[in-house]
Design goal:
heterotrimer; A mainly alpha (about 190); B alpha+beta (about 600); C alpha/beta (about 260); A: about 190 residues; mainly alpha; Arc Repressor Mutant, subunit A; three-stranded antiparallel beta sheet; 7 helices; 3 strands; about 5% strand; elongated; C: about 260 residues; alpha/beta; Rossmann fold; six-stranded mixed beta sheet; four-stranded antiparallel beta sheet
Chain lengths: ~190, ~600, ~260
C-alpha cells in the first residue's frame, strides 16, 4: 500500500483525505473496507522513512489537514516502483508443501485438505462475483482479476486432487477405487 | 508440402473416407463418358465396310437414275430422251469410266417362305465385267451369259436364307441362285426396298414374259477426281429439274445415307450422354455443396493453418479429376467393347462392322466431357462453400421486428401448422440452397420428361402391318424396331433411375443439412413429427420450382433429341401431369424418410454433431 | 411432498459403449433441485455431468432410475410426450448457443411460445419483453450469425425463459464466451436466481459453479461432493484483497507474504 500512496503524491502534494479518497476510488468496492486510519498510519511511516514531507498548513495538527509532499528520495522510489515488473506470488508453494507433508506424515488426508481449500476458494469466488455488479470503473476490473485468479487456483486444486487420489490409491466417497480420467466429454 | 502434393494427399484421404460419394460421382461420370464413347464409336463403324466394298466394286462417284411407271418400251419417245441425257452425261468432261446404263425391271414379286411376296427389282447386266459398280461376289459366282442363274443382293440373300444353288420363285417362275453379291449403289435390304437382283439379258426376257416391266434406267459414273462429284452433280443439275427427270447422287451422299439405323442409335446415345452429363454435374454439385457444409470445421482449421481457399478447391478438384480420369478410361473401354456389338446388330452394315481406331480426337472428346462436368460441378460450389463461416449470415438487412413476420401471419391466418410455418421461414431465408436443390431436381424432372418422350416415340416403332410386297422386309424391319425399342426403353429407364437417384441425393443432403437445427427444435419442445413436416415444407418449395422449370426444360431437350426426318413425337400431356403430381409426392416421401430417421435419434447425439 | 422440488432424480444410470467397452457415464446418481434454488454440478471433462443434464431434460433416456419433474414421473415418457413437456416445463441453455440459423433472434425466442399454442402476437410481445429485460432487444431482427457470442447466449436465455419454465438446464453456458460476456451471463443467472427461478448449471468453470446455492462435484459418473457455499464476512475478504496487511516493507514483491 505504501508505494501506491507515494505514487498518488507524485503529481502534486495533497491533503491526507485526498489521498484516501483517490485510493478508495481506485479500489472500487474493496475500497470501502479501507480504514481511514490506516492511510494516515502509512503516511506517517513514509514520513519517518524520509520519502514524504509534511507541510503544516495553518496551525492545525489534525492529520486530515496536513499536506503531504514527495521528497527527492520519494520520487526516486516512485520511479523505481513503476518500472518494477515483479509480480505477486506465482507459485502456491506453501499449500503444495502442506499437501506433501500431510501425505508423508499421515497427519491429514491431502484430498480432504484440497477439498476444504477448494470450498473456501469457491466461497470467496462467490462473494467476489456478488460484488461485481455495480462496479464499472477500475474497481470492477480489480474484482474481475480476483475472480480469474481464484478460478485458476480452483483449477489447480482439481489437478492436485486428481494427483493425490492416484498417488494415495484412496477410495473416493462412493467407495470405488479412483480411475484415470476419461478424455471425451459425453 | 507443395500445393500439388498436399492436394493429392487430401484428395486420397477424402476418397477413402467417403467412398460412397466418390462411387456415385464415378458412376454418373462413367455413364456419361460411356454413352459418349459408344455413340462416337458407333458413328464411324459403318464407314469402313462401306469403303471396302466401294473400292472392291469400283464404286461410283456419281450415279444417275430414271424411274417411271408403266412400260418404257411402250413410250419410245421418253426412252430416247432419257438415253440421250444419259449419253450426254457419260460424255461429259471429267468422266473417266461409265457403268451401264442398265435397264431396271420392276414390279417383280418374290415369293416368300410363309406366304406373301416381296417387291423386287431386277437389274439387267450385259456380259463381262463392268468398269463401274461391279458387285462384289460373296458367295457363288457372278452372272454367266450361258446360265439363267440370278445373283441376289447380299441383304436379300440373308433375309431369305438363300444360297447359291437354291431356287427362288419370282412371279411364278423358278430361278436358280447363282451367286450373292454386295454393292454400294443402293442401300442394303431390308432397310432399302425393293429387293435387288442382277440378271442376264436372257433371264430378263424370261422375267418380262412372267410379268415384270421395264421401269427405269440406272447409270454409274466414275470421275477423274472423286472429290469433283458434288461439283459435277451441280453442273448437271438441270437434269433433275427438267422432264424426263433424272436423279443424280454423289458417292458421299450415298455413303452418309447408307447407315440410317446406326445413325439413329448413335444419335440417341449422344443425346442421352449429354443429358446424363448434365445430371452428373447436378449430382456432383449437390454432393460438393453438402461436403462443404459438413466439412466447415475442417476447412476452418486448414484456413487457420495457412492453407488458401484455392488450395482447398484444388484438393477437391484433384479428387474429382482423378475420378474423371478413371471414368474416361472406363468409358472409352466400354465404347470399344459395346460399339461393335451394337453395330453388329445393324441391318445396313456391309459385312462386319469396323470400329474405327481410337483417335486422339475421340479421347479428347470423352475426356473433355468428364473434365467439363467436374469443373462445372466442383469449382463454384467449392468456392462459395469456402466463403461461408460456420454460422451463415444471409440477411443483409434487419427486418422490421415489431410486427410478426408477414409470412408467419399469413400462415397463421391460414391455420397452417407451426411446423409448416417454420419450414417456410427456413426455406425463405436460404435462397441459394433452395436454388441449388431446385436446379438439381429440375434436371431430374427434365430427365423423366425425356424418358416419357422416348417411351412415346416407341409408337413410331410400332409394328406396322406388312403390306403386300413387304412380307420379308416388313418382318426384318419389325425385328430391328424391336431392338431399337429395347434400347430406347433401356435408356428411358436409365434416365428415370438416374433422375430418382439425384432426387434422393438432394433429399438426403437436405435432411442432413437440417439435422442440427431440428435437434435444437426438439430440445425446445418440437415433436419429431413437427421437425419432419418442417423439413418437407421447406424443401417442397425447391421441388415445386424444380417441377415448374424441369418440365419445360425436359420438353426443350426432347425437341432437340427428337430431330431427324422422323415425324415428331410430342410428350403426352398425361405423362406431364403425372410428373407434375408424382415428383413432388415422391420427393416429399424421399425427404421424409431420412428426416424421420434422423428425428428419432436422441437429441443429445444430434446436437453434438461434428 | 414436503418442499416442492423442481426436479428429483433417483438412481440414474446411463451406459455407453466406447470402443466396445461399456462405460457408465452416469453411475447411480440421486439429485434434487428445490424450487427457487440454483444448483451447479462441477467436475472434470468426461465425468458425465453433461450426460446427467441430458437425462434430466429428456434429451437422452436413462438405462435405469427414475426422474420426477415438476411432480410428475417422466423417465418412461415417449419422445413426443417429452417434447410437449419440454415446451412448458424446461428451458435449455447450451454451450454452443444452438439457435436456429435461419430464424431471426426474436423468432428464435418466440418459438417455444408458438409451440405451446400462444397466438403469434402474444408470443411476439412476450419475446420482446424478455429481450428487453436481457438487453438484446435492439438485435431482435438480426440473424444469429450477426450477433456476438454474449448476445447469442442472452437470446438463448430469453428463449429458455419465454414459457416460464419450472427449471432451466444450462450446460457450460459460458464455455464459448469471452470474459466480459461470461460476466454478463453470470450476472443474468444471479438475477434469475434471485427472482425465484430454479436453475441447474453444469460447468467446469469455477466462476460459474460458485454462483450456485448448492454445489455438487462429480467424478467418473458419480456425485462425490456436496456443499453449500455460505458467505463469510465480506470485510475480511475485501481487506485481504486490498492487500492492506502489507504496510511494512517497500511493497508486494515476488516471494511469500
Amino acid at each position: 500500500m505504501k508505494d501506491p500512496i507515494l505514487a498518488l503524491l507524485a503529481k502534486a502534494p495533497a491533503h491526507g483525505y485526498e489521498v484516501r479518497q483517490r485510493l478508495v476510488d481506485a479500489l472500487g468496492p474493496p475500497g470501502q473496507a479501507l480504514n481511514p486510519g490506516q492511510v494516515y498510519v502509512a503516511l506517517g511511516r513514509l514520513e519517518r522513512a524520509g520519502l514524504v514531507l509534511v507541510q503544516q498548513v495553518g496551525q492545525q495538527r489534525h492529520p486530515d489537514k496536513k499536506v503531504y509532499e514527495l521528497t527527492a528520495a520519494g520520487s526516486e522510489r516512485v520511479a523505481e516502483w513503476l518500472a518494477d515488473v515483479s509480480w505477486a506470488k506465482v507459485m502456491p508453494t506453501e499449500f503444495h508443501l502442506k499437501l506433501v507433508t500431510a501425505a508423508v506424515t499421515g497427519l491429514a488426508d491431502p484430498v480432504a485438505l484440497v477439498d476444504a481449500q477448494r470450498h473456501e476458494l469457491l466461497r470467496q469466488l462467490r462473494e467476489v462475483q456478488a460484488l461485481a455488479d455495480p462496479a464499472d470503473g477500475p474497481g470492477g476490473l480489480l474484482l474481475e482479476g480476483a475472480a480469474l485468479r481464484l478460478a485458476a487456483d480452483v483449477r489447480w486444486l482439481e489437478l492436485c486432487e486428481q494427483y493425490w487420489l492416484e498417488r494415495g490409491g484412496q477410495p473416493d466417497r462412493a467407495g470405488r477405487a479412483s480411475r484415470p480420467d476419461r478424455n471425451d466429454e459425453r | 508440402m507443395g500445393s500439388v502434393r498436399l492436394a493429392a494427399h487430401l484428395a486420397w484421404r477424402n476418397i477413402r473416407r467417403r467412398p460412397a460419394q466418390a462411387a456415385l460421382i464415378l458412376l454418373t461420370l462413367t455413364m456419361a463418358t460411356g454413352m459418349f464413347s459408344v455413340g462416337i464409336a458407333l458413328y464411324g463403324s459403318a464407314d469402313g465396310p462401306w469403303d471396302r466394298v466401294w473400292k472392291a466394286t469400283d464404286g461410283f462417284h456419281v450415279s444417275a437414275s430414271y424411274y417411271r411407271q408403266g412400260d418404257l418400251a411402250r413410250t419410245g419417245t421418253d426412252l430416247t430422251e432419257v438415253r440421250h441425257k444419259f449419253a450426254e452425261l457419260a460424255a461429259a468432261p471429267g468422266v473417266r469410266a461409265v457403268g451401264g446404263p442398265w435397264l431396271q425391271l420392276v414390279q417383280g414379286r418374290l415369293d416368300v417362305a410363309h406366304g406373301g411376296y416381296e417387291d423386287l427389282t431386277a437389274e439387267v447386266r450385259g456380259p463381262g465385267r463392268s468398269l463401274v459398280d461391279q458387285p462384289l461376289v460373296t458367295e457363288g459366282s457372278w452372272l454367266a451369259p450361258a446360265s439363267e442363274g440370278i445373283v441376289l443382293e447380299q441383304g436379300l440373300a440373308g433375309a431369305l436364307h438363300a444360297h447359291p444353288g437354291d431356287r427362288v420363285r419370282i412371279d411364278g417362275q423358278r430361278f436358280t441362285v447363282r451367286g450373292v453379291a454386295m454393292t454400294v449403289s443402293q442401300g442394303r435390304f431390308p432397310l432399302t426396298v425393293p429387293a435387288k437382283v442382277w440378271v442376264t439379258p436372257a433371264t430378263a426376257n424370261l422375267m418380262r414374259r412372267a410379268g415384270l416391266t421395264a421401269g427405269g434406267i440406272e447409270m454409274q459414273l466414275r470421275l477423274d477426281d472423286p472429290d469433283d462429284a458434288a461439283a459435277f452433280a451441280a453442273a448437271h443439275g438441270d437434269i433433275e429439274s427438267s422432264t424426263p427427270t433424272v436423279f443424280l447422287e454423289t458417292w458421299r451422299e450415298r455413303r452418309a445415307a447408307s447407315h440410317s439405323d446406326i445413325d439413329i442409335l448413335a444419335g440417341t446415345l449422344l443425346a442421352a450422354g449429354i443429358v446424363v452429363g448434365l445430371l452428373a454435374v447436378a449430382t456432383a454439385a449437390v454432393i460438393v455443396a453438402g461436403r462443404m457444409a459438413a466439412q466447415t470445421r475442417q476447412i476452418g482449421t486448414l484456413k487457420a493453418v495457412g492453407v488458401t481457399p484455392w488450395q482447398i478447391v484444388l484438393a477437391l478438384l484433384t479428387e474429382h479429376l482423378a475420378l474423371a480420369g478413371l471414368a474416361t478410361v472406363i468409358g472409352l473401354g466400354a465404347g470399344r467393347l459395346i460399339a461393335p456389338r451394337l453395330a453388329g446388330t445393324s441391318l445396313t452394315v456391309l459385312g462386319d462392322p469396323e470400329t474405327p481406331a481410337l483417335s486422339g480426337g475421340q479421347v479428347a472428346v470423352v475426356a473433355g466431357v468428364a473434365v467439363v462436368v467436374v469443373v462445372l460441378s466442383t469449382v463454384r460450389p467449392a468456392l462459395r462453400g469456402m466463403r461461408h463461416t460456420t454460422l451463415r449470415a444471409l440477411a443483409t438487412q434487419a427486418r422490421p421486428p415489431r410486427r410478426p413476420a408477414r409470412l408467419a401471419q399469413l400462415a397463421a391466418s391460414a391455420h397452417l401448422p407451426l411446423a409448416g410455418v417454420l419450414g417456410l421461414r427456413s426455406a425463405w431465408r436460404r435462397p441459394s440452397r433452395l436454388l441449388t436443390n431446385a436446379a438439381g431436381l429440375a434436371l431430374a424432372v427434365a430427365m423423366i420428361v425425356v424418358a416419357a418422350g422416348l417411351r412415346s416415340s416407341l409408337s413410331r416403332l410400332a409394328a406396322q402391318p406388312t403390306g403386300p410386297g413387304e412380307a420379308l422386309s416388313g418382318a426384318a424391319i419389325g425385328t430391328l424396331y424391336q431392338q431399337v425399342r429395347v434400347i430406347v426403353l433401356a435408356t428411358a429407364a436409365l434416365l428415370l433411375v438416374l433422375g430418382a437417384v439425384n432426387a434422393f441425393i438432394v433429399a438426403s443432403f437436405a435432411a442432413r443439412d437440417g439435422a442440427r437445427a431440428h435437434a435444437m427444435l426438439r430440445a425446445v419442445g418440437a415433436t419429431a413429427r413437427q421437425t419432419v413436416v418442417s423439413l418437407v415444407v421447406s424443401q417442397s418449395g425447391a421441388c415445386l420450382l424444380a417441377v415448374a422449370v424441369g418440365i419445360p426444360l425436359g420438353l426443350g431437350l426432347w425437341q432437340l433429341i427428337d430431330g431427324g426426318d422422323l415425324p415428331p413425337v410430342a410428350v403426352p400431356g398425361s405423362a406431364l401431369a403425372l410428373v407434375a403430381v408424382a415428383v413432388p409426392l415422391v420427393f416429399a416421401a424421399a425427404v421424409s424418410l431420412p428426416a424421420w430417421r434422423l428425428a428419432h435419434r436422441p437429441v443429445a447425439t444430434a446436437l453434438a454433431y461434428e | 411432498m414436503s418442499t416442492p422440488t423442481a426436479v428429483a432424480a433417483r438412481g440414474l444410470v446411463k451406459t455407453y459403449a466406447a470402443d466396445g467397452v461399456p462405460v457408465r457415464a452416469v453411475d447411480g446418481i440421486d439429485l434434487v433441485v428445490e424450487v427457487g434454488e440454483t444448483v451447479s454440478v462441477m467436475g472434470p471433462s468426461g465425468c458425465g455431468k453433461s450426460t446427467l443434464l441430458h437425462l434430466l431434460g429428456g434429451l437422452e433416456r436413462p438405462d435405469a432410475g427414475e426422474i420426477v419433474l415438476d411432480g410428475r414421473r417422466v423417465d418412461g415418457l415417449s419422445e413426443t410426450a417429452w417434447a410437449v413437456l419440454r415446451r412448458r416445463t424446461l428451458g435449455f441453455v447450451f454451450q454452443a448457443f444452438n439457435l436456429v440459423d435461419e430464424l431471426t433472434a426474436v423468432e428464435n425466442v418466440e418459438l417455444p411460445a408458438l409451440l405451446v399454442g400462444a397466438p403469434s402476437r402474444r408470443a411476439r410481445r412476450r419475446a420482446f419483453e424478455l429481450m428487453e429485460r436481457l438487453g438484446v432487444a435492439d438485435r431482435a431482427g438480426h440473424l444469429p450469425g450477426r450477433l456476438s457470442g454474449g448476445e447469442r447466449q442472452r437470446v438463448a436465455v430469453a428463449r429458455a425463459l419465454i414459457n416460464g419454465p419450472r427449471l432451466i438446464l444450462a450446460d457450460e453456458p459460458t464455455g464459448n464466451l469471452d470474459s466480459r460476456a461470461t460476466a454478463e451471463i453470470l450476472r443474468l443467472f444471479a438475477d434469475l436466481g434471485r427472482s425465484g427461478q430454479s436453475l441447474l448449471v453444469v460447468s467446469h468453470d469455477a466462476r460459474v459453479a460458485s454462483t450456485a446455492d448448492r454445489l455438487l462435484t462429480m467424478r467418473d459418473g458419480a456425485i462425490v461432493g456436496h456443499t453449500r457455499l455460505d458467505a463469510g464476512s465480506p470485510g475480511a475478504l475485501l481487506a485481504e484483497m486490498a492487500g492492506l496487511p502489507d504496510l511494512g516493507g517497500p511493497g508486494p514483491r515476488g516471494g511469500e507474504h
